[in-house]
Amino acid sequence: MIFSPTPPDRPTLSGSAPRRDWVRGLYLITPDEPDTDRMLARVDAVLEHAALLQYRNKSAAPDLRREQAEALLALCAVRGIRLVVNDDLVLAQAIGADGVHLGEDDGDARAARDALGPDALIGVSCYDDLQRAHAAVGTGADYVAFGAFFPSSTKPNARRAAFGLLRDSAGFGLPRVAIGGITPDNAGSVVAAGADLVAVISGVFDAHDPPAAARAYCACFDHSSLKDRG
User: Which one of 31, 54, 219, 221 has the lowest number of neighbouring Cβ atoms within 10 Å?
Assistant: First the structure.
């Protein structure tokens, strides 16, 4: 179901497909940037290295959030990247986003599917909770996200997740996202534990050289063999 139907030249991510066919790599999340033009420029500089893009701006007013989300959707259409909206099903539906990412207070995947349609990409934050991931699978999620795996400057008080969650959730048959304090230096450890994507904000956008940082994350996947992962 995930990423289907697939536009030309876009990768396919499918929960029913062999693991080798899943999208793997950098799941880029936007920084809280109040200037839309600057945000677009910052994202565009690294977007070619991303497997997915998530729009997240917790500090913006609703009008600005819509302006930025629409601008990013247009950019992603040109670049061939899917745009997921964080925590805001109403906004995702309003702009025709490719999907939505749901936190624990944002409803379930079934309601999001009903709102966005069968081809939408629905992700669910599962934090440190394997049972929440199991429930997300049951309600039709397309991927599950665990974390924080390391101390995070974005969410310093986030609950911590154990690497075993990535291995224990392999049987769910869905891509697994790792998030929380992931750097190019430690990303290889969560990839080896089973992460199909690593979700990053500051590790790219606060880096001295964001494109180089993005490439470094991608290299962690280049160096990981599927046969070594859970």
Answer: 219
Say how far residue 228 (Cα) sits from the centre of its chain.
Answer: 22
Q: Which of 40, 70, 213, 7 is nearest to 198 (CA)?
A: 213
Element (H, E) at 177: strand 176-179
Task: Give the residue numbers annotated as catalytic, written as ranges.
Answer: 56, 125, 155
How far apart CA 198 and CA 42 sit, in angstroms, is 19
Contacting residues for 165 by C-beta, under 8 A, at least 6 apart: 126, 128, 130, 133, 146
- The predicted model scores a pTM of 0.88
Residues in the chain, pLDDT under 70:
1-22, 224-230
Tokens of 214: 């993005």
**Rounded distance between C-alpha atoms, residue 229 and residue 213, angstroms:** 23
Give alpha helix (H) positions in the chain.
36-44, 62-79, 89-95, 109-116, 130-138, 164-168, 187-193, 202-205, 210-222
Domain assignments of the chain as residue spans, ordered by start: 23-222
CATH number at 23-222: 3.20.20.70
